What does this fold into?
Amino acid sequence: QSALTQPASVSGSPGQSITISCTGSSRDVGNYNFVSWYQQHPGRAPKLLISEVHKRPSGVSNRFSGSKSGNTASLTISGLQAEDEADYYCCSYAGDHAGVFGGGTKVTVL
Amino acid sequence: EVQLVESGGGLVQPGGSLRLSCAVSGFTFSSFWMAWVRQAPGKGLEWVANIKEDGSEKGYVASVKGRFTISRDNAKNSLFLQLNSLRVEDTAVYYCARDTGWSRFDLWGLGTLITVSP
It folds into this structure.
């Protein structure tokens, strides 16, 4: 179970859109449409943003959207706001009831 | 109100043991898989283990297999993680999370810190 690959950091100015990639393999991201994304502010518990590649739970802003192509999933944040500055993690189902997270991406709002 | 409250963390020496608990309220505990996810200081999230609604199926990340045991008591709405043969690299905040299936963690506790140090 190797960790999924995310860029260490992504930055953008308020109002801009940014995209965070999450690259796995044919054993996880490429084999299942069960990719989720989490937002974590410093000292806080993670919060579910996206599940099943592109589904937003109730209460999550529609500025967050997810997609997947092959072994790579992506999270796009549109209309970037100061409150979006946080760490973001992808997670994929990897079979046999196991999950695997990405290494995390720090989003900075310039 | 939904709550997941972890307890049992602390400082332990390498080779030692700890038992974590997660007290759940606000949803039907016995209807959901549950999981433990950890985060080493300054590092990313790592799925550690999960357990089926009735406890009949369990999964572990390779690095903890044979050392950690996940269990649950549906009568007491509680999730547990027994950690044995602890290593320095097990130092982390351990989160209890509801797993709605396919590694979708929609509810999280605040976490409990385990520090493994000589």
